[in-house]
Design goal:
Layout: H1 10-14, H2 23-50, H3 56-64, H4 66-94, H5 98-127
Helix pairs in contact: 2-4, 3-5, 4-5
Length: 130
């Protein structure tokens, strides 16, 4: 017997239309990247302040060593991922046209990936002397 929905209560019609459980992973990813960004940003700002008056050669030598290169890459990845997650939430909340919403999310993801990849390649280029 097919139910047209006319005799069903609002609760019965709403069952199964709730959360897709995707929001929890997104929420956790935002929190984890935010927590990771705190020490990474403090380290990076302190390092840049300490290296303010150094030469280009000294800076590239510093960034080319293992620990600074690794931490800088982690900072880049966490920053772009965190930014992409945050912008996605803004788009989902404030863009109401489904086509524009999808286009905005795809554009943000592609931009974050492209800019993050370019930044990581730049660090690796310095680290490997390219």
């Amino acid at each position: 017997m097919a139910d047209s929905g006319g005799l069903r209560s609002p609760l019965a019609r709403a069952r199964g239309l709730g959360s897709a459980q995707d929001g929890t992973a997104h929420w956790w990813a935002q929190r984890v990247t935010a927590v990771a960004l705190v020490p990474l940003t403090i380290w990076f700002v302190a390092s840049v302040v300490l290296l303010t008056n150094c030469t280009y050669e000294r800076f590239t030598a510093w960034l080319g060593s293992l620990l600074p290169a690794t931490l800088t890459i982690l900072l880049i990845v966490a920053t772009f991922h965190h930014a992409q997650l945050g912008l996605q939430v803004v788009i989902e909340d404030y863009v109401h046209h489904e086509g524009a919403k999808l286009a905005g999310i795809v554009l943000v993801k592609l931009a974050a990936f492209a800019l993050g990849a370019a930044a990581v390649v730049s660090v690796l280029k310095i680290a490997f002397g390219g």
